Amino acid sequence: MSADGKFGDYGGQYVPEALMPAIEELNDAYERYVLDNEDGFMDDFRARLRDFGGRPTPLQRADRLSERYDREVYLKREDLLHGGAHKLNNALGQVLLAKYMGKERIIAETGAGQHGTATAMACAHLDMPCEIYMGERDINRQRPNVFRMKLNGSEVNPVTVGRGTLKEAISETMRDWATNVEDTHYVIGSVVGPHPFPSMVRDFQSVISEEARTQAREKLGRLPDAVVACAGGGSNTMGAFAEFVDDEETALYAVEAGGSTLEVDEEAGVAPNSASLTTGTEGILHGARTRLLQDRDGQIMESHSVSSGLDYAGVGPELAHLVDTGRVTAVNVDDDEALTAFHRLSQMEGIIPALESAHAFGYLESVAGPDAPDSEEADGLGEYVVVNVSGRGDKDLESAIEETYERDIDIAPNMDEFTGGL
Amino acid sequence: MSADGKFGDYGGQYVPEALMPAIEELNDAYERYVLDNEDGFMDDFRARLRDFGGRPTPLQRADRLSERYDREVYLKREDLLHGGAHKLNNALGQVLLAKYMGKERIIAETGAGQHGTATAMACAHLDMPCEIYMGERDINRQRPNVFRMKLNGSEVNPVTVGRGTLKEAISETMRDWATNVEDTHYVIGSVVGPHPFPSMVRDFQSVISEEARTQAREKLGRLPDAVVACAGGGSNTMGAFAEFVDDEETALYAVEAGGSTLEVDEEAGVAPNSASLTTGTEGILHGARTRLLQDRDGQIMESHSVSSGLDYAGVGPELAHLVDTGRVTAVNVDDDEALTAFHRLSQMEGIIPALESAHAFGYLESVAGPDAPDSEEADGLGEYVVVNVSGRGDKDLESAIEETYERDIDIAPNMDEFTGGL
Amino acid sequence: MSLEDAFADGPAFVPYLAAGDPDYESSLKYVEALERGGADVIELGLPFSEPIAEGPTIQNAVVRSLEGGMTPTRFFEFVEDLDVSVPLVCMTYYNLIYRYGDESEAQRASNTSGETVSNGPRPFVEKAAEVGIEGFVVPDLPAEEADPLREACDEFGLDLVFIVAPTTRGERLDRIMEQVSGYVYVQARLGTTGAQSSVSDQTGSSLERLTDYDVPKAVGFGISSGDHAERIVASGADGIIVGSALVDIVAEGHENGDDAETVADRLETLARELKDGAVAGASQRPPHPERT
Amino acid sequence: MSLEDAFADGPAFVPYLAAGDPDYESSLKYVEALERGGADVIELGLPFSEPIAEGPTIQNAVVRSLEGGMTPTRFFEFVEDLDVSVPLVCMTYYNLIYRYGDESEAQRASNTSGETVSNGPRPFVEKAAEVGIEGFVVPDLPAEEADPLREACDEFGLDLVFIVAPTTRGERLDRIMEQVSGYVYVQARLGTTGAQSSVSDQTGSSLERLTDYDVPKAVGFGISSGDHAERIVASGADGIIVGSALVDIVAEGHENGDDAETVADRLETLARELKDGAVAGASQRPPHPERT
Ligand SMILES: Cc1ncc(COP(=O)(O)O)c(C=O)c1O
Ligand SMILES: Cc1ncc(COP(=O)(O)O)c(C=O)c1O
What we know:
By secondary structure, chain A is of the alpha/beta class. Helices cover about 45% and strands about 15% of the residues of chain A. Chain A folds into 2 domains: about 15-50 and about 85-200, Rossmann fold, CATH 3.40.50; about 60-85 and about 205-420, Rossmann fold (3-Layer(aba) Sandwich), CATH 3.40.50. In chain A, the strands form 4 sheets. Chain A has a 6-stranded mixed beta sheet, sandwiched between helices. By secondary structure, chain C is of the alpha/beta class. Chains A and B meet through β3, α5, α7, α14 and α17 of A and β3, α5, α7, α14 and α17 of B. One pyridoxal-5'-phosphate (PLP) binds next to α5, α11 and α15 of chain B.
């Protein structure tokens, strides 16, 4: 990263002028508190991650997957973090930073509700008023997360414009920020948005790879040959990769949501996937230049994935840059493969993953599973693979069961008795 | 505990003869593997608790509660354990023991579904076939947990006899065990049942107090003045107390479910509470002599609590004994107080507790809260209190919201928009 | 007549019914029909709310009886009201025995501590003896925990029957056989009570373990026809215990709303078939060295 | 006429409409009505799918226009079809400028890598110049990122208008004022676009910061009546920018199914009110040292 928040040509600060002073103030706070640990900010943050968040999370050997894939498969257990996903690393960091900055109000957007719940938890913990913007359609799809946010004392503001999903919620939150910028901090939920967000969120999330690296050395006396993480906006991804970027011997795989197909319907403005690294093009969205799902004119397309946390038309600029430079390999896994992987991990390891995280396991299966064609890709994974379990699947139970039922995933348990009553 | 599994007059092995050989075999395995660490069983168990389960769980200072109660309040975060409750400590221990014993099949009962999900997770992790008995009424009340068990590959067997709740499910599981005793292990979910279960489950759960004791010394350089834990069967309770029992300076509070009232309706055979330590009488249930909710004739009463995990007519024999001897103080908190505490912890600390665990916080409020009468009880808590957060409340969202709505808990967020659609 | 005596004249037929199933009056008639059908001993169930050793058939009988208002006190009245002359064995769970008569109403009213300490099994046994019960079967009371009940039985001259499971062997078996009196209840298969369509093959070997013990051996669990009865006695049993097959008749009659006389006749008919089967079985069996 | 010239003869009235809202033909009429109502410059919105700086009124206009099939290509046709003589400013988001004309259809079809690299803003600016657009306002393009667009504008002789927010001060302000040309868009209040029932009091102090910069100052955000316009010009503004209040008329007409002529008349009426207000405001203001 250069000082102006550029990763190659990506990144930058494409926001309305009204927000620029806030972003400069934030950047200043980021440099002082996060980078220079002023007032012991980072120590405070790390202590809270430990005591409130439950860090470190284990690096667990997956015995049955290791056997299946004929290599050492280790799981980085972010699903065990308070709230059930890696999202808390970032939310806690940003809310704490806002507190150090003297802000008095927190706003955030949420799609699946994971970032919203993490932010609501962090705000309750740190005694900050909080409002969360969430598309009306998402509110209806993700009720338990709405309940959790409200129980933690946050307001949930339904966004009714447009299609009522994440994209609209982000825009709406930016509008609130532009109106209340003086006392309000906007907690962005991934490594996206204008500088310093992509760097700052990465730094808060990089505790994942920092721990994993140390744990790998302790457990196997060496670094992994590969790290695999799903990529929506890319925050768990950058978190899992950051400390390995300089370890040339460790391959890094970012697994995107292939949705139902990689083909796009330009007429309808719909991409039935969220594979912006694989199929996207360069553009500017939500404050940064990055890879996007957009039509020929530059209008943003509606993305799709069975996992709502990956369902976003953009991706973090740093991750896009690392893919362009070849340091990170972007791959993708479709809805069916992800659902199958969801069931496989649940049955074989006793861990019900978030549908987002299931994509990472789908990749393992597709290159190293018993039905995988012999390929160089499997060699690329090497002997010793770390997979980031970015979150737990409790939030996905109903949709996983419904989607499974519609698709007839063969390893799924019989849930006929429930699919009616959902 | 004496060698025959008695705690004073409590405990023992009141089971059908067909089960006695299995219980003797289990006792033998318990002594060899658990007590004597044969084949490194305990090392294996502890390593799995760490890597798969996410131990140690933090001992977190609750900043805002400490302020509210004018003393140091620390939380033992069992809610962060894999699966969301302390139940995994026991389930993993027993399933692993069954594996060491050469058993080929696991059965378990479950009420709220927490023990069932923990057992299903442990079985998937250890590749053991598993069947869970669950009352039909509970199946309908606890769907997400039913989904989780099935996703982890367990069979869920509905129990339709009687009222279709935990009591019936336990009886049904005992019947299965009596039929398949040779290759099957019955994973009992709390410190109840015939010897060696109460001792063995306590030993698996005592990792809670073992960690808490060490963490307390590290963080405050001393032991806590009091440990507070909710008590249903009493497994999180005994787990949180075990290593403190010999520390005379640490007071131990077992918080039972006071339900709607401590009065019982003998005619109907219903106790609108689950306070067997407070209001129960000595008797024999599910294999052990202990304190029970029973009518004058010795028929077991239907218990009640807003929290289904506390909704049981019996209690562990060791805990009953510790209460009789005065080492543990039994107290209780009613449904309304528990719900209020549920909301308070969610809002003030960003932790949505299980309704079971909320009872422990209800006790704190009732003796040390701003509206508490000045009392010796508050002094009993001392300066430094550890509260065991036995589980997270994700499983309770819907019922907590419904029950809150019916009762009009004043600190609750407005959920009117949702109470219709539940 | 003592329990052991009931086994003296050839194989004993020991039927079971839950007292008060489905109601007090009908149940009296049903139990009496068993005697007419040839019962040598009758096991009378006092229903407990958590019948962990029973299969669905008897569980449901227990529920019907409890809903009909059966209690230990009513049970003793029931026994007094019964017009049968064969010995009666009370089959129930230990908590009911343990809690009975532990406190008077007055004690209870004045007890504010909430603690009530049981007086143990003695009051129950005393009362049972008074109404003419000859013995007990307590499925959740293993020999290890039986001393207090054993003592009370000895004091009042009652027998204490124990169940021996297919898995019971060696030292455990000795310990049980030391405690047992009246007869030993030989469980024919693992599992819980319930009528079966075939009879367990293990009966012969089950009984073999027990040849050295000088007490009548009654085999139960799953017997439902005269044919079963015959084969089991032919394998060496001194008696047969039949519960669920009889309870099924009660349940069916209850569901169909049949009148009590009709149901009683059906019970008598099945009882006779079972008794006849047992007698037929006895004639096929090799002369027994110890029990001639 | 250049943009700056439009501010030469007294206060400029700068209305905004989204091109193609609610459909192509009606929208042409609406824009032309603005000129009849006295517009000195017209800001024409090219709708982007993520209008992060707009309030609900303009968001909904964007949705209507997109649903009506508006695209950058259609937008340029629209400008060509327009019969107005005042200068036009294109208001849009940077991604549409950035992506325009980056690849021909043929290039695209033969591109299998999935990577398409933009040629930057030049093709868009070139095309805009060709159809007669005089300048741009790009709300999500801060001065820091504006160099490529600035260069293209210089090349083709277009102006680049920047927005100055109430929070913009000091160094930031300098940086913006270095880049700006045509006029500076003075945001009257924090937040997003949208008609307001009262006018911001901060206008005077907002403008004060800018006295030293020699470029016309047009104030926008929330102006909805002649009265507002008057007060703002009286406070020293060189022009007023009005969007949402006009878009509201389009939206209402669309909802009620009113015919395009009627709606155009209403727009003309409000435009005239606003223009008159601005003119009235000018007469109240103290003589301006720099701009006489
Ligand atoms: C569990 C989980 N994993 C991954 C993601 C994707 O986000 P990111 O790519 O920023 O990690 C989400 C987003 O909600 C999530 O909840
Ligand atoms: C979170 C939680 N706490 C407590 C309990 C009560 O059980 P015990 O008293 O055995 O800890 C349960 C039972 O389901 C539970 O789920």
